[in-house]
Specification:
Length: 397
């Protein structure tokens, strides 16, 4: 993934530009507020070595099977001894997020809650492609949606729907659910003076009209499920129609792919599940956002979900960094069995203990959780057959 080089890193042109624009003080303040062990630990399962003087984990920059990545808290640096990727906190973000120095600095400043000084002498971003600005727009939208779900009269049917599904206010708050009212310019109107229409569109929140000038909101009259990256920043949304909606658009759809939202790489609820996955060394993967939320609410917290598509290799690679064992949960209906067969054939080659849990026919994971007490459910997940056995059973059935 990253260029293999033995030479010391030469500062990128963008880096010297930044030094001129954003002061060295700012850069050093961000560095001082960033602990490299916790930063790397957000995306890699690290274990202490040499009495805590080093931490080791699977390198995210090459296909690593033996932990080759070392993190040195003393020097606040990291290095992979196989692909030779290494450096400080800024290098780590540049390499893992595929961004240039300035964006890495802004990402870490946001993470450390240090206000970013206004950039001067830099041409105004007009393309809206600036990642930090996109992240800011998505975060702003998340707050707007949340506020609407809580307070708007128009959101009453959405609140009713979520209560019917059995979600407590705590779960709704934890997953930052929201609502977009039935108004095609609701977001466009509220963004004035804050974000340009181009920025909102680049962030997957609005679309440009095809029949004339102007933009319209992408999600309308939907319950909004924010999707967070591994750092817990919202990067996109899934929108679900309310029961009885006859608008004819899909029941669920996600933000369009953009500079911060990569459907095939993101894993829903990983930010909430990460600690439990590390603890149990097991990740349970479900197909729906609401099923995943129900599991968390029921106290089974090592559960994540795919983004409405079959599990991708990149998602498995991400999950594998925290879990030794991955349990895929599928519905017991025909579509579910077909989906699990596909996943199995694709991932038998991956170096991961993959298990399949097929639910009794006609039961979705939420019903399954209702029907079984938590402990029984945990045991079933624990005893889920190995993917290979499942293959054999399907073939011989
Ligand atoms: Zn490596």
């Amino acid at each position: 993934m990253s260029a293999v080089t033995q030479e010391p890193r030469i500062p990128l042109p963008s880096e010297s530009l930044v030094s001129a624009e954003l002061s060295i003080d700012f850069k050093e303040a961000v560095r001082a507020q960033t602990d490299i062990v916790s930063l790397v630990g957000e995306t890699v399962r690290l274990s202490a070595a040499r009495g805590g003087r080093e931490f080791v984990g699977l390198c995210p920059f090459h296909d690593d099977h033996n932990p080759s990545m070392r993190v040195y808290p003393g020097q606040q640096t990291f290095r992979c001894w196989v692909c030779n990727t290494g450096g400080d906190c800024f290098t780590f973000v540049m390499e893992s997020e595929h961004v240039e120095f300035r964006e890495a600095l802004e990402i870490l400043a946001q993470r450390a809650k240090i206000p970013i000084p206004q950039r001067s002498g830099r041409p105004q971003e007009s393309s809206g492609q600036d990642k930090a600005k996109l992240l800011e727009a998505v975060l702003w939208a998340q707050g707007l949606f949340e506020n609407s779900l809580r307070n708007d009269e128009a959101a009453a049917p959405a609140r009713h729907y979520l209560a019917e599904r059995g979600f407590t206010p705590e779960t709704i708050a934890q997953f930052r659910l929201g609502f977009h009212p039935n108004d095609w310019s609701w977001m466009v109107d509220r963004a004035r003076g804050r974000f340009t229409p181009q920025q909102l569109t680049a962030a997957g929140l609005t679309k440009q009209r095809e029949d004339g000038p102007g933009h319209f909101d992408y999600f309308v009259n939907r319950v909004m499920f924010p999707i967070h990256n591994e750092r817990g920043q919202p990067v996109g949304f899934g929108g679900r129609v309310l029961p009885g909606d006859t608008s004819g658009f899909g029941k669920y759809f996600n933000s369009t792919e953009n500079a911060v939202f990569h459907k095939s790489r993101l894993v829903y609820a990983l930010n909430h599940a990460r600690d439990a996955i590390k603890e149990t060394e097991t990740a349970v993967v479900m197909e729906g956002y609401t099923d995943c939320m129900s599991s968390h609410q029921a106290g089974i917290r090592n559960v994540v979900a795919t983004l409405g598509t079959a599990l991708t290799e990149m998602q498995v690679t991400t999950i594998k960094r925290f879990a030794r064992k991955v349990v895929l949960v599928y519905d017991g209906d025909k579509a579910g069995i077909e989906a699990s067969e596909k996943a199995v054939s694709r991932f038998l080659a991956q170096d991961v203990d993959l298990r399949i849990l097929t639910l009794p026919e006609g039961q979705d994971p939420a019903e399954f959780l209702d029907a079984h007490r938590q402990t029984v459910c945990r045991k079933l997940i624990h005893r889920a057959p190995e993917a290979f056995d499942f293959c054999v059973r399907c073939v011989s059935a």
